[in-house]
Amino acid sequence: MADQESTIRGSELRSSSATEEEKSHDAQLEFSITADKMAAFISSYTPAQGNGAPLSIEVMEKELEKAGYKGQLDPDGARFALQRANEGKSILNVALVRGVYPQEPEDGTIIGDADFRFPVLPGMIFGTLVPPVKASKGANLLGEEIPTQKTTTPENITVAAGGGCSHDKEINALVSDTYGLVQIIDNQIYVESLIHVSADSMQVRATLFPRDCFGATITLQRIEPALQAIGISRPLLLVAGESALKTARETGIAQESVIAKGTEPIAGKNGWFEYEREETKSIGTSLDNDRIDFKERGTHPMVNPGDIIGKIHPPVEGKAGEDVYGRLTPPPGGQPFEIKPGAHVAPMPDGITYKALATGMVHLEKGELSVIDVLVTQGDVDYSTGNIRLEKGSVHVTGSIREGFVVNVPGHILVKESIEGADVHAGGDIDVSGGIIMAGKGHLKAGNNITAQFAANARIDCGDGLTIAHELSNCLVRCKGAITATAGKGVILGGAIASATGIEANELGSDIGVQTVLSIISRPPVNKEKVKEREDLRDRLMKINAAIGQDSDEDILAQTPSDKIQQMEKILILRAQIKRKLKEVRNKLSRDLADYYQSLERLSIRAKRAVHPGVQIKIGGKALTVTQPMNRVKFYFDSTTRTIAAVNL
């Protein structure tokens, strides 16, 4: 460019004056060249004389050729020089020609303003695809060749098939098909979806970011087309989704949330067997005809020859659910109850009613209904009988089991009155017509169910469920099945009560604030294989980072000697592959944990009447202490917030 805006001075001309007699000549130029021989500037200019050719592009090219410069005329510089010359201004130091710089090899890449740490959304143009550029040598103005610093072959990047994005070749735009994060792995572009459907297709989880790759706020409505694209038809859970987005905006941290759910099918009721004999002191469900339904508690009535044992009820049909794709999910259950008559049992003509042929205890196991032999004690288990240990069969205690004594049988134990501080173990059920009064001594353990009117200061273990009519106080209980106290007074207070299935009572705790701990037994899944894979990948990544640093690929390559470039590129590709695999493993472990939390939602602790302060609820590693009285409440684990929630029944 020109040094100044002055008019042409005589000192810049070869001749300060000309006469008519002088010979005509074309405009003339002289040049100076830069030290690197890559640019030539006008150092002297003599305008045309007489009939000589004025300054023009052709004159400039001729003068450059005469000076021996090999570069191409710079059109912008030439036009600028002509304009200034016509205006009578200086054209010194205007660059007219430049050398050709070498072109280093460049891999294909994406250009644009998107920040790929944040998501793209359906239909969003997130960049332009730039093809690779091959290496080419340069040349200076003297025609000397300039080699490239790198000799590697540039690599192209392409859109991965089914990778959640597409390449619109007409406008050379990369367009997202889903909601996710843009990734480039092994020279392929894809959008890693941030939407995941559970294995049973009953819920959709999404990782919700505060903003997209261009800084715009993300809303559920902007994500919805991504759900529609994969066939999700269930409505969005607006409250849960907006709550997660609000947290993401406040913290700047992406939040995971369930944003759509299917409707769970309502299980049909299988057929069941109803005992005919009414036991006034037993616990069960009252039917319309005032008989007792013992099907859920494993009660074993005593019968005599000719007694009606009970009858089979048909199944009740369930109600279908709907998964997140709108497909109907058939309800489970609703199977007929089948009975095979065993020892001392015969069917009645109607085919659903059964009668006893002998005196004994009714036993129904694995579909076989029998009247079995039973050891009957005349009165209490005490010093008159001693401890009772059987290798087979069951026991009917017509009195109580006294403190310090042992009853251990592989079958069932029926106690007409109570158990007092004894060690009582049954492979089947323990049925107590009265109560369990342990005073901190002894232990009750049943392979199946335990039923009683009440239990106090007892240690109880059940392979199945525990049913208490009136009060369960200051006990340590652990059951695989449900713990129920609803038939009578139905109070659970004090102690530590744990079930793997659920707890239900009329009342929890007491109005004087007795500490009562109620727990759902659960263990989060541990995928040892994936955990080990995660640790191995993390170790490999740490070793690579320790050797080459944690800078970006571009920064690392810029610091790498030219003879090590190819080797470093292979290492960086390996690092990217490890990062991708590590992310996949971590996501799998996170999804497994999310599914576990979702399974906890089906379990609950219920109070049909009241919950008092001092009650502590434990589910899924979380604890909630009740500080105010509550009425008719269900406690459950909310998988979205991963906290214990309480709702009214």
Main β-sheet, in a few words?
22 strands, mixed
Query: Mean of residue pLDDT?
Result: 87
* SS field, number of helical segments: 7
Helix percentage range: 10-25%
Q: What is the CA–CA distance across the termini? A: 85 Å
Number of DSSP strand runs: 50
Strand content: 25-35%
Assembly annotation: single chain
The poorly predicted ranges are 1-21, 278-298
Task: Please give a structural write-up.
This protein has 649 residues and is of the alpha/beta class. The chain has seven helices and 50 strands. The protein has a 22-stranded mixed β-sheet that branches. Strands 1-2-4-3 form a four-stranded antiparallel β-sheet. The longest helix has 36 residues, at 565-600. The protein is rod-shaped, with a radius of gyration of 44 Å. Mean pLDDT is 87; it is low at 1-21 and 278-298.
